[in-house]
Every structure is written in C-alpha cells, then in structure tokens.
Amino acid sequence: MAQSHDAYYVPHGSHWPIVGSIGLFSTAIGAANWMNGSTSLMAAPLFYLGLVIIAFMMFGWFGTVIRESVAGNYNKQVDVSFRMGMMWFIFSEIMFFGAFFGALFYARMFSVPWIGGEGHGGLTNYFLWQDFTPSWPTNGPGNIGGTFETIPAWHLPLVNTLLLLSSGVTITLAHHALRAGYRRALLVWLGATVILGASFLYFQATEYLEAYQHLNLTLGSGIYGSTFFMLTGFHGAHVTLGTIMLIVMWFRCAKGHFTRNDHFGFEAVAWYWHFVDVVWLGLFVFVYVL
User: Fold this and answer.
1) Fewer Cβ in 10 A, N or C end of the chain?
2) Is residue 113 reached through a cis peptide bond, with omega within 30 degrees of 0 on the bond before it?
3) Do residues 55 and 107 both lie within one domain?
4) pLDDT range class, residue 6, cuts 50, 70, 90
C-alpha cells in the first residue's frame, strides 16, 4: 500500500453496504423459516440466494478497498483506522461467541439441575418432571429428538484441534517470512495454512455426517444438540470465511501487493485466524471434553 497522499482518504459513495444488508436479511429470513420447518418453497432458495449476495458483496467491496490500497490512496492515519476497526470487529465476535458459551454454561449449570430438582427447582421437578434425573449431555426431560450419542473428543475433534493449532503456527511463520522479504517461504507457509484450514472443514463435515447418520445427534436433539451445532456450526462458518480470506491473501502476496512494513490486509486476516483458533480451543474443552 504505497503512501502517496498526506490527507485522510474519504471514499466515494458506495452501494456495497445496502447490497450486504439485502444479503444478510435474505439469509436470516431464509434460514429462520427453513430451520423452523416452513412449508414455503422459498425458504431454502432464499437462504442460498442471501449467501450468494453476501459473497458477491464481499468480493466487490473488498476488491474496491484493494484497488484503493494499491493505488496509494491510504496513508498512515487510514492504516490506524483499519486496525482499530478490525479490533472492534474481533471484539464483537468475542461477544457473539460469548453469548453462545454463556447459553451453554447456563443450561448446563443451572437450567438442567433446576429441572432435576436441585437448588430452587424442587417444585419444578415434583410437579412436572419427577422421573427426570439431571445429567449432561441431555436432550431434556422430554427426550427431544430421541436417544443420541455424543462425538468422542479424542477422535476427529482432537485431529481438528491439532490442525488448527498447526495452522496458527504456519500463518505466524508466513508473517515472519513476509516481514523478512522471503516471498517463496511466505507463499509456502500461507498455502500450508489454507490446506490446514480446508482439512479442518473437511473433518468437521465428516463429523456432522457421522452425528446425523449414525449417532442421531441433530440440531433437534434438545438443549445439547442445539448448543453443540450452534457453537460448532458458527465456528465452522468463521473458519470457512477465514479460509477464503487466506486464499485471497495468497493471491495478493503472489502479486506483490504487500511490503515488509506495509501489509495490514495480511495482518488482519492473521488476527482473525488466531481468533478462530482460540475459539476452537474453548469449544474443544467445554463442548467435547467436559
């Protein structure tokens, strides 16, 4: 990003925010209707249409930013603004996952024991669910979704943990190579990160197929199924987005868009990737192991 302007760059009017809003709205409405068993034939198509619009928006908007960057429109102050924006974005993501981890903690430590008669839930258990014994994992006193089995923590989840931890190392090595000016090493380590991320997604999909087809563990398996698939599913969506961004960074590095001292686009993706690594460690411990 060459620094050719001293003034703070103010971009022209953009249509991408409204395009993104339409895509997000379509995805949310389609997903909500689809997941709640809507008989409308438009639920699933609306969901996928929203995803296509979001993908179109991301490539278009980020393409505009890349062209502005390569043209030298950004100075140091703009770089600081980008860094602050990325920090706030990651903070919002921490709050996002914190809400789901909080729901898991509340259900596991409070709701299920109360229904089972512990603490202040004696009357609830006596009048409603006398035969329910609190335990975890559970699909509740109504046995919602039928009997299920859980994913063993020390099989695919452990493999995925090792993959993501390794990817955190490879992207760090790629960053060091970029700062040292070793383009070949940069592309090798960044490519390795892409492969590790894609491998994680493959094994996550394999795990989901196993859960649905053989373990009867589904999104409808009560509170455990809901929290399991919401946490791992949203994390998988973030890994998918991160892998796409890593691929874009690989091509940008190959084209020489970054220099040793001016490469925040790469750093932002690295920050994001380390974030999904940390979230997965929390998932592995609190969802799979404990």
Assistant:
1) C
2) no
3) no
4) low
